[in-house]
Structures are given as structure tokens and as C-alpha cells.
Amino acid sequence: MIKHASKGPKMEKVSYGGWENCYRLRNESVELIVTSDVGPRIIRFGFIGKENMFKEFADQMGRTEGREWMNFGGHRLWHAPEAIPRSYYMDVEPVLIQEIENGLIATQRPEPTTGLQKQLQITLLPDTPVVQVKHILINHNLWAVETAPWALSVMAPGGVGIMTLPPRGTHPEVILPTSTLSIWPYTDLSDPRWVFGKRYLLLKQDPTIHSPQKIGIYATDGWAAYANLNALFVKQAPLQYGEIYPDLGANFEFFTNEEILEVESLGPVDAIPPKGQISHLETWTLFDNVPKPETEEDVIRDIIPLLQ
Q: pLDDT tens, 27-83?
């Protein structure tokens, strides 16, 4: 057992999913499990005694080697924009775990293929289902690297993702655009999993539909959510106005296929100087007893009051 403050979250070393060296961080309502045999990765987040809000790939759990990149599931840090092979570094090596007040730091060895090092600083609030995850990219090259931190939460199947559209206005009082949508070559806006409302955009994860979908948005409200398993996972990452974001200006993105839905947030593009670093902060909140929305009206009735 790792020492901890009596009134703060409790942390202990545990085995989980076939990995012998994991760290469980919990308070009275929720728990996280962080791997140290691979990563850095948060493989579980959920209410104590209830299902994992994150996806776990059963055939990859416990593995520490392979010939191809493995998703594993859970939550991870990448550097944007996506590129092959740069983004798909095999994160199967042990990571360093350091205890901090109310949490821990998980640090990867510098990637030999990129010269970048990934670090997650994870803090669990003592008495509420709220987590702060600071994503850090450290440049170990002798030259500056231009990139953006990219935080990906791989959610369990069967839920609904919710994105916010920018504040509405009337014509001709408001005549300039207030946001952008980024679409990929495989994005099909006629796909039945999309629900486009006036104020909110929904994407349903459907295990019976195999084609992938992805969209990005310049979300001025600074949050996105995923409703599943009678719970609501909310990710907040405030927009930094005036900065340039990857993927044609997206600070939040959804990706789905038949197995997962990813709730992704991005920081702005920056040049990391040699031995320098950039960071991106997310705040997660988990709400219990929340039904999955089918329409925008459901979001307004059941979800928005929770965030106010």
C-alpha cells in the first residue's frame, strides 16, 4: 500500500487486466486505474463497483509486446496532427509512476522515433467525482518540434457523444461565422448515427455499423460528453482564444466505429523548444443516473442542468 493522506484519495498498487503493476486511485465514489507496465494510460475510470466508462480491448489486455500498435482502450496522450508512423509509437514499455498530492504522475521514456516524451499528471478530487489530467509533451530533440497535445478517451460501446455548437444568433444582426466543422474523407453526414441539432451535435456508437465516422469542431463552450451505462462522462478543456488548433481548427473531435467512440480534445499548435514542454489540461466529471439522449431536446432536459 502506498502512503496517502487520510482525508485525500487513496492509492494502492494492484494487478488489473493481466498487468501486474497498476495503480488504483479512488475516493468515496469513483476510481481510476493507471497502468505502469505500458503507457502512459488510464485504463479504467468509473464509479466504484460499476462498469468501466472506457473501452477495454480484451485481446490486448495484459500485453507488453507486439508487432503492431495496440489501442488497449482507456485514455491516452498523442501529439497532433495524426500521421503514420509517427502517431503510432508502440507504447508497450514500462512508465515511471510518482506519487503527488491527491494523485500521481505517469511518465513515458522519450520516444526514440520522435524525441518526444509523454507525461500524465493525474489528480482526483478528494470528495467529488472529478479528475484533472494534465497532458505534457517534452521535447528531447536538439531542435524545436511543432505539434499539439491530443488527449483521447476511448469510450465503451453503446453510448452517445454530445458536442456543443457555438452560441446561436439571428440574421442580419449576426453576419459572421462563429465556428468550423472539420470532416474527414470518410465522414458521411447522412449516416444515421449523427444527430444535428440547433445547439448540440450527437453521435451514437452503434456496434452493428462498421464504417468509421469522425468530426472535429471549434467548440467555444469548451466541453464534450458521452452518455452510457446510465452515467455521463463530461470532458472540459477550455478554448484558448486566438491560438491555432490542428485539423482545420478543431479543439474537440469524435471518432467512432463498431467498437468504440473516442472523445478527443486538443490543445493549440505550438513549437516546443529543445528541452521545453507544452501542456494541455482536461477536467473530467462523472454523473450517475443519466439516461442516454436520443435527441437535442433530451440533452437540454437531462444533461445541461447538470453542467449549470
A: 999 999 999 999 999 999 999 999 999 999 999 999 999 989 999 999 999 999 999
Q: Which residue spans within 49-196 are E strands per DSSP? A: 74-80, 96-100, 103-107, 116-124, 130-139, 145-155, 160-164, 181-183, 194-196
Buried b (16+ CB within 10 A) or exposed e, 161-183: bbbbbeeeeeeeeeeeeeeebbe
User: Hey, which residues does 216 pair with through a beta bridge?
Assistant: 182, 253
Q: Which three cell numbers stand for residue 38?
A: 505500458
Give the residue from 80, 75, 132 showing the smallest Cα distance to 267. 80
Report the predicted TM-score, pTM, of the whole model to 2 decimal places. Answer: 0.96
Of 50, 295, 66, 87, nearest in space to 195 by CA: 295
Q: Show me where the domains of the chain are located.
A: 10-307
CB of 93 within 8 A of CB of 273? no
Q: Reply yes or no: is the peptide bond before residue 185 cis, omega within 30 of 0.
A: no
Other beta carbons within 10 angstroms of residue 20's beta carbon come to 12
User: How does pLDDT run across 189-219, given as a tens digit for each residue?
Assistant: 999 999 999 999 999 999 999 999 999 999 9
**Cα–Cα distance between 14 and 16 in angstroms, integer?**
6
Amino acid identity for residue 220 in this structure = T
φ/ψ of 285, rounded to 5, equals -130, 135
CA trace torsion 73, 81, 266, 71 (10° rounding)? 0
Q: Note the pLDDT tens digit of each residue in 83-97.
A: 999 999 999 999 999
CATH 2.60.40.10 fits 10-307, yes or no: no
Mean pLDDT in the chain?
96
